[in-house]
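re: the backbone from monday

yeah here it is again, tokenized this time
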């Protein structure tokens, strides 16, 4: 006798499928609400204490892949980025420009700008006030899988299937970021930081770190309290890099 089972059986004690290979969960700034997107075209916001779904956001035409919560932004297989009004349960506006699915998102400049990555091998920097693309970053040979900034928003780390991890310096209108980046790890090949930048150039390539693994990067994330970067590949390896400022690097050299 053969009995058939559902792959995911419904139960009142579970939230459903909350993570997959292509997408993951996120939390709001309070940590009390769980944002779920896996395997769906909608975003569900759950109350972690009550275990109930409070809000469902539905504007994407493809499965949602990426979420970032400052303002809530989502990226999807429909190639679009949507900014959301969570309280009003509605989309504020849609950012179009990518020609393949959006893989990750990160806010800059206290939520005034947004960086999106895509399988088309490009990064786009968006001005959220004007809703226009400020800068397009090319140069990757494979699809970009993950991006993240350090807590001070001085550097943007980018992971892909390329043999290098790339780091970009982030230009802020109010602060001229010129400190040097040194990493305690593999050999780094640096590029000079240009003193004269176009006002639209928010990101400038600074350094490339050669990776030892040939597997593509799955996710890169900075630790919020310290300049530690975790780099996970598709295999079983998670590598931790420590980002040093110029003063720390000189002290270690001694």
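seq for it, each position gets an aa:
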């Amino acid at each position: 006798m053969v009995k058939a089972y559902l792959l995911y059986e419904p139960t009142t004690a579970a939230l459903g499928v909350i993570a997959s290979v292509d997408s993951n969960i996120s939390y709001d700034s309070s940590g009390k609400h769980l944002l779920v997107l896996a395997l769906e075209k909608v975003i569900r916001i759950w109350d972690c204490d009550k275990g109930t779904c409070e809000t469902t956001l539905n504007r994407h035409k493809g499965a949602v892949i990426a979420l970032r919560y400052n303002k809530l932004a989502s990226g999807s297989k429909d190639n679009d980025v949507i900014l959301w009004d969570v309280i009003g349960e509605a989309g504020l506006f849609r950012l179009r420009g990518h020609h393949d699915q959006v893989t990750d998102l990160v806010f800059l400049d206290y939520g005034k700008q947004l960086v999106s990555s895509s399988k088309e091998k490009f990064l786009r920097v968006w001005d959220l006030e004007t809703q226009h693309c400020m800068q397009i970053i090319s140069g990757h040979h494979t699809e970009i899988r993950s991006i993240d900034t350090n807590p001070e928003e001085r550097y943007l780390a980018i992971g892909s299937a390329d043999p290098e991890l790339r780091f970009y310096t982030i230009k802020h209108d109010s602060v001229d970021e010129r400190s040097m980046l040194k990493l305690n790890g593999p050999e780094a090949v640096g590029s000079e930081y240009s003193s004269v930048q176009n006002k639209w150039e928010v990101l400038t390539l600074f350094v490339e770190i050669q990776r030892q693994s040939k597997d593509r990067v799955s996710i890169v994330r900075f630790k919020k309290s310290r300049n530690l970067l975790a780099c996970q590949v598709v295999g079983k390896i998670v590598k931790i890099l420590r980002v040093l400022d110029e003063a720390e690097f000189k002290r270690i050299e001694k």
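The first strand starts at residue 26 and ends at 27. Residues 10-15, 175-181, 186-197 have pLDDT under 50 and may be disordered.
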